Amino acid sequence: xxTTPSQIINSFEAAERQLKETIYLMFEKRDPVIIHTLAYAxxxxxxxxxxxxxxxxxxxxxxxxxxxxxxxxxxxxxxAGNFFKHAGRNPKKKLEFKAQLTHFFICxxxxxxxxxxxxxxxxxxxxxxMWFILTYPGTLEEEALIELVDKKIGPLVPNPSxxxxxLSFLKNHK
Length: 174
Hints:
Layout: H1 11-27, H2 32-50, H3 70-86, H4 100-117, H5 123-135, H6 142-148, H7 163-172
């Protein structure tokens, strides 16, 4: 039996690898539960790593949310990720899962990654940002959009609903 060599990685590297793979899986139209689980895990790591550096999360650090709604909002945002991670705790529970939520976790994770690295974002993150902006126009404030847009790849991007073209774009323009 051939064994796989061990790897030594840190938390940031784990989150980066999870996030990159999540983006590929999304454009490959793979299982939405797996994609959300991986996106949620990457987001959770990046959020925790960002706390000491005052990195801000669109999901958890929203200043626009009224205080009386914060707990309900937080519980709703965590529901799917916690369900997929801990489903064995209540085997009879069912969840109505809205896969679009995953897009916002990926978007926020990419933003957290960019805040932590203070450098050029990895290619998959740039491509995802372009897709997100085209798919959810008007969702982000203008300042956030400027951070996400990559002027070099912008003119090359495919139709937002053509996931095969986005996957091909990822693989061929890296």
